[in-house]
């Protein structure tokens, strides 16, 4: 395997599960950022993500750990840990161990996803995870769309930044996704950790059409390197979330989600047929994303890349923007 030249310990929000994979009382095992972790859901519904090994004598809490009300109880000696990672009970002592703490991760549940904040320097979150609905501020929400369709591909040899760079890579659309003409970018805003990219694109018509005549496009919001949300206009109404999370020094898990807009009510359509059509279109959007995955998973990151003059601005902007999510790189540049 080839280790990517980019750090697999970037800072930001990253998806580690879907909310419905972890019910009340469940203890869910997972590995991200080279750490064994558990996610457990308390009686109240609150979800906690913490490192998996008990601070007492190191039992793995994902094998026999039990949710008791609002705490997680270790299978080995029954010590109980709360959502802050604090020990609240040693069953055979009159007081808990107040000094030791399990490492917990800031967590948000949004758009049916579980996102954790990862930072090697353990800073608190300094930007927000994007929301596939609210972030576009158009008043539309999950109720305006059919249920989420999903793709999960685990343990692929790729880096989150490959996926993000796709967002400025106008030339690949024609070759990977068979668009008739090359899209045109109308916005590149890389001023903040949450960045914005808009482009005009069409999947219809022939290669003789003019991009100025195209009346459809995509708006993308990148919340750091881990999560990107998109909204389309002028075509079948769809929103997507792509989320790439490093597992270890070599591989990442990829999750991709699509929502297709419901037709206006009373449009005189057959609802079952409309839903079938939507599901079909969702599968097509997922298939397009899988075409990208086939490239990314075999790619070797090129640095510096051989860019065409027209590519220079977009790739330079996104690569400069990305450096802020690698604390070690950032520290060495400052120092
Ligand atoms: S190892 Fe967890 S309570 Fe002893
Ligand atoms: Fe793509």
TrEMBL record:
<keyword id="KW-0442">Lipid degradation</keyword>
<keyword id="KW-0411">Iron-sulfur</keyword>
<dbReference type="GO" id="GO:0170056">
    <property type="term" value="F:cholesterol 7-desaturase [NAD(P)H] activity"/>
</dbReference>
<dbReference type="Pfam" id="PF19298">
    <property type="entry name" value="KshA_C"/>
</dbReference>
<keyword id="KW-0001">2Fe-2S</keyword>
<comment type="pathway">
    <text>Hormone biosynthesis.</text>
</comment>
<dbReference type="GO" id="GO:0016042">
    <property type="term" value="P:lipid catabolic process"/>
</dbReference>
<comment type="subunit">
    <text>Homotrimer. The two-component system 3-ketosteroid-9-alpha-monooxygenase is composed of an oxygenase component KshA and a reductase component KshB.</text>
</comment>
<keyword id="KW-0408">Iron</keyword>
<keyword id="KW-0479">Metal-binding</keyword>
<keyword id="KW-1133">Transmembrane helix</keyword>
<dbReference type="GO" id="GO:0051537">
    <property type="term" value="F:2 iron, 2 sulfur cluster binding"/>
</dbReference>
<comment type="similarity">
    <text>Belongs to the cholesterol 7-desaturase family.</text>
</comment>
<dbReference type="InterPro" id="IPR050584">
    <property type="entry name" value="Cholesterol_7-desaturase"/>
</dbReference>
<dbReference type="InterPro" id="IPR036922">
    <property type="entry name" value="Rieske_2Fe-2S_sf"/>
</dbReference>
<dbReference type="InterPro" id="IPR045605">
    <property type="entry name" value="KshA-like_C"/>
</dbReference>
<dbReference type="GO" id="GO:0016020">
    <property type="term" value="C:membrane"/>
</dbReference>
<keyword id="KW-0472">Membrane</keyword>
<dbReference type="Pfam" id="PF00355">
    <property type="entry name" value="Rieske"/>
</dbReference>
<feature type="domain" description="Rieske">
    <location>
        <begin position="13"/>
        <end position="116"/>
    </location>
</feature>
<dbReference type="GO" id="GO:0005737">
    <property type="term" value="C:cytoplasm"/>
</dbReference>
<dbReference type="InterPro" id="IPR017941">
    <property type="entry name" value="Rieske_2Fe-2S"/>
</dbReference>
<dbReference type="GO" id="GO:0008203">
    <property type="term" value="P:cholesterol metabolic process"/>
</dbReference>
<keyword id="KW-0753">Steroid metabolism</keyword>
<dbReference type="GO" id="GO:0004497">
    <property type="term" value="F:monooxygenase activity"/>
</dbReference>
<dbReference type="GO" id="GO:0046872">
    <property type="term" value="F:metal ion binding"/>
</dbReference>
<comment type="pathway">
    <text>Steroid hormone biosynthesis; dafachronic acid biosynthesis.</text>
</comment>
<protein>
    <recommendedName>
        <fullName>cholesterol 7-desaturase</fullName>
        <ecNumber>1.14.19.21</ecNumber>
    </recommendedName>
</protein>
<keyword id="KW-0560">Oxidoreductase</keyword>
<keyword id="KW-0443">Lipid metabolism</keyword>
<keyword id="KW-0812">Transmembrane</keyword>
